[in-house]
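Minutes, methods subgroup
Present: GH (chair), OT, SY

1. OT presented the first of two proteins processed in the latest run. Sequence and structure tokens recorded below as shown on screen.
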Amino acid sequence: MKIDGARILITGASRGIGEAAALELARRGAHLAIAARGKKELDRVSAEIEAETGTAAVVVPADVSHEAEVRAMVADADKKLGGIDILINNAGLGLSAPVNEIDPNDLRYVFEVNVMAPHIGTLAVLPGMLQRRRGRIVNVGSVASHISTPTLGGYSATKFALKALSDALRMELQGTGVGVSLICPGPIATDFVAHTRGDVDGRLPAHPVGAPPAEVGRCIARAILRNQAEAFVPAYFQALVGADSLAPQVMRVAGKRGFAVATKFAERYL
């Protein structure tokens, strides 16, 4: 699908992956609506886009944990852009706790943001896309959409759910002109940990680690242009997921100790 001239709504666009994707797509000629809770940060991103491209993004403040705000966000963006060709469901947050310590309120909230908000947004944009027989839903999942690890079971549960919805919807939309992409980042150098619910101390890297957010922005652009069903960032994580599928016992044996070692490695070298 073409990006140049496409009307795109991006959630969670005030920082990190969402901001990087907005800048990447704006440079490629997209007309953008950017959404997040903080208007001040959205205004900053919009100004940066205008400085680079000459055209500001439409700013749509919204708290996607509330269904009414998701629907209002889509309606506002649709009106101001004159339609939505591509929806990028990027807003999300983490959850860190052993399964037997997960606060049900935390799990419920993270499901609202990571699963229900993308679903409600998708329901709101699909009628217009189907009528025009053109469009794309881009869901930002995670390597955790495929592999669950100690203390991240709750987070993985939301990303597994998002993958399941993406996979089913992709098949259901065959022949309609509307496609679905699932983007699966590994560790990305954002402030993800700072906004993670639960107890992260000693369980997740203490500082941002991993690939730069711009790499995910480029991956999202490629997935749109190539109509990709699924893409990994960095790409080598696809091999890790494949290896886990072929030999899941390796991850099971590594278990808690293996994950702790991987966390320390990431803190020191990534």
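2. SY then presented the second protein from the same run.
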Amino acid sequence: MLVPVSENDLTRRPLKSRGTAWAGYFSRRMLALGLRPNAVSVIGIGFAALAGLAMVFTGPAETAWPLWLAAAFLVQLRLFCNLMDGLLAVEGGLKSPTGELFNELPDRMEDALILVPLGYVSGTDWPVALGWAAACGAIATAYIRAVGAGLTGSHDFRGPMAKPHRMAAVTALCVLLAALDALKLNFDPIPWGLGLINLGIAITCVRRIGRLARNLHSPRS
């Protein structure tokens, strides 16, 4: 049975999808199957790894668009697992002492498993560097959030390139690459896409640090 939880909980990412009927349906099915939040978190790593593999295999593939669509779908499945593990833990009443560990560490692995292979697909040094920079930047945004939570007791999930935004950008890029391949158009948007993601990550880090500094300077009641 799912327990209603306030969306004002400052330790959780505010997601509209958490309260949807389909999210409730899948979380109930998972509870009935006996799935635990930590297991769902680990499954998310598998989806991220498969997304990265699909991207890498587009290089030698004669027809790459099915692989790009598969990568887009797998990226969304990664986010689906990220949503479900929280629903099972909180609303499903399955919190565990290792819950926070399994909530955070898989996310960092998943970002790298998706963003780094995306950079290698182009086959040149610049996109590879951008892929690694995006993976490191994703860790930086999470680190700033965690430091802020330790100092103020609340998490700052603001973007413009928080985890859901990064994965939305990657998904859109994969769909665009599928369309370009299907239409046999010779254009590589990966450097531009990764450049945009990195720019958004930099802005996100600055915004989170700025807000944290302001909160620390504000008088506490």
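Chair's summary of item 2: Residues 1-8 have pLDDT under 50 and may be disordered.
Next meeting: continue with the remaining queue.
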